[in-house]
Amino acid sequence: MKALYIATLSSFLFLSCQGQTKSASNPTTKPMEKQTIYQFKVEDLSGKTFDFASLKGKKILVVNTASKCGLTPQYKELEALYKKYKDQNFVIVGFPANNFGQQEPGTNAEISTFCELNYGVTFPMMSKISVKGSDMHPLYQFLTQKAKNGLQDSDVEWNFQKYLLNEKGELEQVVAPQTLPSDASIAQWIQG
User: Fold this and answer.
1) What phi, psi does 83 have (nearest 5°)?
2) What is the pTM of this model?
3) What are the pLDDT digits (tens) for 110-155?
4) Angle, alpha carbons 78-68-158 (nearest 5°)
5) Which of 34, 101, 130, 164 has its CA 20 to 30 A from that of 157?
6) What radius of gyration, in Å, describes the C-alpha atoms of the chain?
7) Tens-place pLDDT, residues 64-91
8) Active site amino acids
9) Fold of 37-191
10) By the 8 A CB rule, do 138 and 129 touch?
11) What span, in angstroms and rounded, lies between the C-alpha atoms of 108 and 129?
């Protein structure tokens, strides 16, 4: 009887240990993979597809823009920043948006003409999108939701809010609309 008890107990322990080994090597929940901006394809102002995966290895500044805003002169500083660092693995990507005070009412063609004539913009400008609300573009959902970007939740406060992404396409910083593109902290981030 004692031998049967020991044999049963040994079998039970053996099977329990095997079950634990299987569970450890085959977890049912895998860790959430950090998303990057490289998953997104958008349209530029001329209607061509712009694939963020083409920017791998570059630092990226994403900014929502508007043509009739008190902050619109930032276009000039954004262009200067882009020209200064574009050959150092840095790019600016602009997204016109009409979410704040109807300050970007133009069509894509009108926005393109405005940017070129008034500020000589040469950095990539995308088609007009929504950066907040129920129709928020998926790219901005990524930029503003910690569950997607792995860094922080944020609200787009106004036109010319800046999102800084590292060479791996991961969000690193959110910069307030009032912070000028010429601010030393942005140059330090690009050079860092």
Assistant:
1) -60, -40
2) 0.83
3) 999 999 999 999 999 999 999 999 999 999 999 999 999 999 999 9
4) 70
5) 34
6) 25
7) 999 999 999 999 999 999 999 999 999 9
8) 69
9) Glutaredoxin (3.40.30)
10) no
11) 10
